[in-house]
Write a structure and sequence with these properties.
Elements lengths: L10 E4 L4 E5 L11 E2 L6 H7 L11 H4 L7 E9 L9 E6 L2 E2 L1 E6 L2 E6 L6 E4 L9 E9 L9 H17 L19 H4 L9 E3 L2 E3 L4 E2 L3 E6 L3 E13 L2 E11 L7 E8 L5 E7 L4 E8 L16 E9 L2 E10 L4 E4 L11 E4 L2 E2 L2 E6 L11 H13 L4 E4 L8 H10 L2 E5 L12 H18 L5 E5 L4 H9 L9 H15 L5 E2 L23 E2 L2 H4 L13 H5 L12 E3 L8 H7 L10 H5 L10 H7 L6 H25 L6 E4 L22 H9 L3 E8 L2 E8 L4 E11 L4 E11 L4 E7 L7 E8 L4 E4 L12 E10 L2 E9 L2 E4 L9 E2 L4 E3 L4 E7 L21
Parallel strand pairs: 25-26, 25-32, 26-27, 27-28, 28-29, 30-31
Antiparallel strand pairs: 1-14, 2-3, 2-4, 4-10, 5-9, 5-14, 6-13, 7-8, 7-10, 11-12, 15-16, 16-19, 17-18, 17-20, 20-21, 22-23, 23-24, 33-34, 34-37, 35-36, 35-38, 38-39, 40-41, 41-45, 42-44, 43-45
């Protein structure tokens, strides 16, 4: 039957109305106990909505909901066949995310089995759905790890790692059920056989709360005659302002032999339109075109992240059979690994031919309950990254391939994405044929899904698999540890499907022969994870004799790191006090109470204390604990970022571990679970500005450096060395012309650095900065006072004028509501300093009296 002149594009019917109920493992489908199911979402969300559990994040409820993972969970709903179905139409049931081990029945007949949360389950129901007739869909989710046995090679790795870690750090916290391997879950070896997010079983930043259920939408898709199966619009080159663009569309002509064409358009932000008309040959339409005066996609710091609206239509004669709408950015991305004059090789991203210094952080899932994070939540988080000066987010390999809303937000915000494949911190049985087939299907799906995103800058094989394998075996020879995944299946998939985006075997990874097996986290090649700081070990940047445990973990060790790209570095800190108050009962709001420690998954629970003894002194109460840990984190990240940026181009990127949180706990994040930025967020935002002015104490000298990660620019400013009593001891104006990538000294002095003074720099084109000549607890700030005036502007809007009498450190406004945003926070004011802070939040989020100004909790003044 022909449909001349009639639009017959696909129709998509959302499948909703699910209910959920438990049974014992292997039990029959339950007759009672059904409750409405949260879809997309999961079992925990459904039980929470029904009032059957308390929130897993509150108090110690993590343990109270452990039973959820020990049941079978049944979901059911009704599917109605499409009303306008035409004979011969194809009908497919697409379950975009099943988490994780699922059996499906339609009208009591087995439909299929699925056990990978990272790719969809698709079933052809063409012959099983009758027009306008109800059909029952039932899905049973089994416990994710049931029936698995730890592969021998993985057991051997963990045995070796346990011995090695015990030899380095023989103390193991009493009652800690995690192996001595850095805080990874005991279930991790078993979980290598199941394609589920590895952080599900708990990590050193989050609880054990494995999500279960339908975590992405379910749709019934009806197609006629032929369908667009996939499309790729990629930029091959930028030549004299024109973009060479290849358009490739895969077509499944399942019920037609008629000639087919792809027509459509690419529309620039300016409205300039490029028309498309490509014949389909052998199931593929492919054409390379030139787009003159291309409006390129850039990171937000360099220019506008322009996006083109793409419309692709599949046509047979004058009939529309299918269509796709998308947004793409015209841009090229490359990885520069040329020789570095300093030694070794560069590791530098090049966007549209421009080398960049990537400034950003590692991204974790926004919740343990991965299915119920809203698009609005993603936009807020990515917006915070953009506002924080970040140009790259690294999707960590122990989490998930993120929801589409995340990548859309990054495309719009002009933030690059380093995309790990989902493997983390353990050897994988890559010679298991069943697992290898599953990985190949997963990689094919995810690369196809994400390759049109302008933000995708790198495909990386895993997180820390190689470095831990090397630690245990001192080699990376081919074998049954993941080698086939990271060096064959994944790179071959990327080369076949997304050849213009670089692939990297893992993070960290390097291959400089001079560093031997330690090259995987070395300083001469590739990216590295700088965990000398916090863990206190030599991770490849050098060790030394330290006077104390605190000195071995101290942030000043960053100064010895000559890595080419720092893809992880971090320091632990508390969230804001108000966040703790929302999740920890009032009677437990004390340092190291049971509920307090339950929200800290790092071990030992007092690991920060030896560092705090040096930096701030030990806290005496909860308020000090919050401020002291925040200050230690903020000062440390500031110090590290400044060091790495001064080293550009020899170092070309810093990604803080970590940007966000999976739950409201104590971690390395700079933005907490409730979306409240920590002090470190503001410190990093200033250090991540396109132009950074920073002081360096070196060999008895004090130097002022300017580091430029943006375009060419002229800057001018003034610096001074001033006593805390207000006396100015040195003052100097300066100006400089900075080329892109410039980092150099613009001023120096050999004068003694008096600990009773501080160095201060301010000017046009860069944020104000300062340097103390000692640790915070030793700085003689002297007496200070803060006065402020709040001026309401409108609902949810105000300005706060702050003035300091004396030197005020760590000046901040505690958040009266999680969504209130400050134009700046956690800053210093010199004697007589003034600042105006803009405050914005939802309507009725705060009253003027809710806005108060605080200094450092440990300030004697």
């Amino acid at each position: 039957m022909e449909h001349k002149g009639v639009d017959m594009a696909r129709s998509i019917q959302a499948i909703e109305g699910f209910e959920v109920a438990p049974s014992k493992v292997g039990g029959d489908r339950p007759e009672t106990g059904w409750i409405p199911a949260v879809v997309p979402g999961g079992v925990h969300e459904s039980l929470l909505a029904a009032g059957q559990i308390e929130h897993p994040y509150a108090d110690r409820n993590e343990q109270a909901v452990r039973w959820v993972e020990e049941r079978d969970w049944w979901f059911r709903t009704t599917i109605t066949g499409p009303e306008d179905r035409v004979a011969g139409d194809r009908i497919r049931l697409v379950l975009h995310g099943l988490d994780t081990v699922a059996d499906l029945w339609l009208d009591g007949e087995l439909l299929g089995h699925h056990e990978n949360m990272f790719r969809p389950a698709i079933f052809d129901l063409t012959d099983r759905l009758e027009t306008v007739h109800d059909h029952e869909l039932v899905i049973r989710f089994s416990p994710p790890l049931a029936g698995l046995e730890t592969p021998p090679n993985v057991a051997d790795l963990f045995s070796r790692l346990g011995d090695l870690m015990a030899a380095i750090a023989p103390e193991q916290p009493e009652g800690d059920d995690r192996p001595a391997d850095g805080g990874m879950p005991a279930e991790l070896p078993l979980a290598t056989l199941r394609r589920k997010a590895t952080f599900s079983w708990g990590w050193d930043f989050g609880p054990r709360a494995p999500s279960i259920g339908i975590w992405r939408p379910v749709e019934l898709i009806t197609e006629t005659e032929a369908a667009i199966e996939d499309h790729h619009v990629r930029t091959d080159a930028i030549i004299d302002g024109a973009a060479e663009v290849t358009i490739e569309v895969e077509v499944d002509a399942f019920r037609t032999t008629a000639p087919l064409r792809i027509t459509g358009s690419l529309v620039a932000p300016s409205g300039a339109t490029t028309m498309i008309d490509i014949p389909v040959t052998g199931g593929v339409a492919r054409e390379t075109i030139m787009i003159d005066n291309a409006e390129l996609w850039w990171t937000h710091d360099l220019d506008v992240p322009n996006l083109y609206a793409v419309r692709l239509e599949l046509r047979s004669a004058d009939s529309l059979l299918d269509s796709v709408d998308d947004q793409i950015g015209l841009r090229t991305i490359a990885l520069d690994r040329s020789e570095d004059p300093e030694g070794g090789r560069m590791f530098r991203f090049v966007l549209n031919g421009v080398p960049i210094f990537a400034r950003g952080a590692a991204w974790l899932p926004a919740s343990m309950l991965v299915g119920s994070v809203s698009p609005q939540h993603y936009r807020k988080l990515v917006g915070l990254a953009q506002e924080g000066g970040m140009t790259m987010l690294r999707i960590w390999g122990g989490g998930i391939y993120e929801h589409d809303a995340f990548y859309r937000a990054c495309d719009v915000a002009g933030v690059l994405v380093w995309q790990d494949f989902m493997f983390a911190c353990v050897d994988y049985p890559s010679q298991d044929e069943t697992l290898a087939r599953e990985i190949a299907l997963e990689a094919d799906f995810q690369v196809r899904r994400l390759r049109n995103r302008a933000s995708i800058a790198l495909w990386s094989g895993n997180n820390e698999v190689q470095v831990l394998h090397g630690f245990a075996y001192q080699n990376y020879d081919p074998g049954n540890w993941g080698w086939d995944f990271f060096y064959k299946i994944l790179p071959e998939t990327v080369e076949r499907l997304d050849p213009t985006t670089p692939y990297w075997p893992g993070s960290p990874w390097g291959e400089d022969e001079a560093e031997g097996w330690m090259a995987a986290n070395g300083v001469r090649d590739g990216d590295r994870h700088a965990w000398e700081v916090w863990h206190g070990l030599d991770m490849g940047a050098g060790g030394g004799d330290f006077a104390s445990v605190g000195e071995s973990r101290l942030y000043r060790r960053y100064a010895a790191d000559k890595g080419k790209f720092i893809s992880e570095f971090g320091i632990h800190a508390s969230p804001e006090l108000a966040t703790l108050e929302r999740w920890i009962p009032r009677d437990q709001l004390a340092v190291h109470s049971q509920s307090f420690d339950a929200h800290n998954k790092d071990n030992p629970k007092n690991k920060h204390d030896p560092v705090l003894e040096i930096v701030t002194g030990l806290p005496q109460n909860l308020e000090q604990y919050v401020d002291f840990t925040m200050a230690s984190q903020a000062e440390g990240l500031k110090f590290g970022i400044e060091h790495y940026r001064r080293r550009q181009p020899h170092c070309s990127g810093t990604l803080i571990w970590q940007f966000n949180d999976v739950w409201p706990g104590f971690s390395w994040s700079v933005v907490d679970h409730d979306l409240v930025p920590k002090a470190s967020y503001y410190f990093a935002r200033r250090a991540y500005a396109p132009v950074l002015a920073s002081f360096l104490q070196q060999d008895g000298r004090l130097e002022l450096w300017l580091s430029n990660s943006g375009g060419g620019v002229s800057v001018s400013g003034s610096l001074r060395i001033q006593g805390f009593d207000g006396t100015i001891r040195t003052q100097q104006d300066f100006s400089a012309e900075l080329a892109p990538g410039d980092s150099r000294v613009v001023w120096t002095t050999d004068d003694d650095q008096d600990p009773g003074s501080f160095a201060w720099v301010e000017g046009d084109g860069f944020p104000t900065n300062r340097l103390f000549f000692g640790e915070i607890k030793d700085v003689p700030f002297g007496p200070t006072g803060l006065t402020w005036t709040v001026t309401p502007i409108g609902p949810g809007s105000a300005t706060v004028e702050v003035e300091s009498q004396g030197y005020a450190y760590f000046v901040h406004l505690p958040s009266p509501h999680p969504e209130v945003r400050f134009s700046d926070n956690y800053f210093d004011l010199p004697p007589g300093g003034r600042v105006s802070i803009a405050v914005q939040g939802p309507q009725d989020a705060f009253m003027p009296d809710d806005l108060v100004v605080r200094g450092f909790a440990g300030h004697a003044g």
